[in-house]
Amino acid sequence: MHSELVAALDIGGTKIAGALVDGGGAVLVRAQRPTPAREGGETVARAVEAVLAELTASPLWPGVRAIGIGSAGPVDAAAGTVSPVNVPAWRDFPLVDRVARAAGGTLPVRLVGDGVAIAAAEHWLGAARGHDNALCMVVSTGVGGGLVLDGRLHPGPTGNAGHIGHISVDLDGDLCPCGGRGCVERIASGPHIARRALDDGWRPGPDGDTTAAGVAAAARAGDPVAVASFERAARALAAGIAATATLVEIDIAVVGGGVAGAGEVLFGPLRRSLRDYATLSFVRDLTVAPALTGADAGLLGAAAAAVPDRWARTHTPASVGGHGG
User: Fold this and answer.
1) Taking CA atoms, which of 40, 73, 240, 317 is between 20 and 30 Å from 186?
2) Any transmembrane segments, and where (predicted)?
3) What angle, rounded to 10 degrees, do the helices at 264-277 and 224-248 form?
C-alpha cells in the first residue's frame, strides 16, 4: 500500500510527462508524450489527456488523492488557466478544468508554474531540503524559479512568484520577448550564452556543438571567449539572486537546468560575482548550490504542490519517506 499517492503532470514545450508519486517521492508509474506545440490547442490537450489516461489505467489509480500540474507559463492558478510562451495555441487555456474532467471530476487539481514546481521538488527532496527560505531556479532554454518562504512553498496569487528570469539586471540591455529590457533570461539562458560567445568570435570544436554545452566544454579547455560568456551569465544570475535575497531574505539559491550542467564553469564565477552583489550583512552568507532532483524535478514538484498541507512538515531535515513536499 503506497501512502499519499498523487498524480503529477509536467507540461513543457517539448514533452508532457505524467507520473504517480508516493509520499516518499518514489515515481511508481510513468507516461509521456511529445508536446505538439505547433499544432492546435485541442491537439495539445488530447496529448495531455493521453498521458492522463495511461495513469488512470494503472491499478494504483484508486489510491490517488490529488493531481498536481507544473506547467510552462505564464500560468494563472486562480483561474486554472495557462498561456505558455512555447505553446502558442494555448492562451488562457482552461487546463485545470480539462484535467479534472479527464480524471473523473472527483479529485482536487492544483496548478503551479514550472519554476514553482522546481522549488517544491528541491525543498522536498533536493538541495533546499532543511532550508526555510530558498530560491530554486532552472537555467536552461529559459530562466525560471520559485520561492520557499518560512518553510512553505510561495507560489503567489497566480502561481508565478519567483520568476527570476524576468528581473531586469541591465537597464540599457537588449529587449526581451517578455517586453522588458536586460532581463536575467536575456543574458543567462543557454541560447543567449551561446549567441554571445558566437558574436564575440568563439567557434565550436570538431563536434560542431554551438549550444551552451559546447561553450561550456570550450570554457573548461580555457577558451577565453567561452569563459567570458559564462562569466557574464554568472554575473546576471548573481545580480538577480542577490536582489531576490535582499527582498525576501533567502539563505540558499539552488540552480538547476541544462546550463547548471556546466558545473564550475558556471558556479565558480557565480559564487565570486555573488560576493560583489550580495553585500549587506543579512545576505552575505547566502549559499549557492546545484539542484539535486534532476530530470524528475518537474514531476516531483507537481506532486509536492498537489498536497500543500505537506509543506508544514517539510522544513526539518528528516528521512525522505517521513514527509512530502
Assistant:
1) 40
2) none
3) 50
In three-state secondary structure terms, 153 is strand
Q: Which of 285, 273, 274 is nearest to 249 (CA)?
A: 285
Q: Are strands 252-256 and 152-153 parallel, antiparallel or unpaired?
A: unpaired
Give me the half-sphere count of Cα atoms (radius 13 Å) on the Cβ side of residue 201: 5
The three cell numbers of residue 64 are 490517488
List Cα–Cα distances, 236 to 123, 135, 229, 247, in angstroms.
24, 15, 11, 17
Determine contact, residues 284/278, Cβ cutoff 8 Å. Answer: yes
Collapsing DSSP to helix, strand or coil, 256 comes out as strand
Strands 6-11 and 15-21: antiparallel
Residues 190, 80: one domain?
Answer: no
Strand spans (E) along 12-66: 15-21, 27-34
Is 318 within a domain?
A: no
Task: Please tell me the number of Cα atoms within 13 Å of 78 on its side-chain side.
Answer: 4
134 and 280 both lie in a single domain: yes
Q: Which of 129, 154, 113, 151 lies closest to 298, judged by CA?
A: 113
- d(CA 10, CA 18) in angstroms, rounded, equals 6
Q: What's the domain range around 53?
A: 6-117
Domain boundary among the residues 68, 89, 117 is at 117
What tens digit of pLDDT does each residue of 20-60 get?
A: 999 999 999 999 999 998 899 999 999 999 999 999 999 99
**What is the amino acid identity at position 290?**
P
**Buried/exposed 279-288: b ≥16 CB within 10 Å, e otherwise:** eeeebeebeb
Identify whether 322 is part of a domain: no
66: its cell numbers:
490529488
pLDDT, tens digit, for every residue of 275-311?
999 999 999 999 999 999 998 999 999 999 898 765 4
Rounded Cα distance, 95 and 92, in Å: 9
pTM above 0.90, yes or no: no
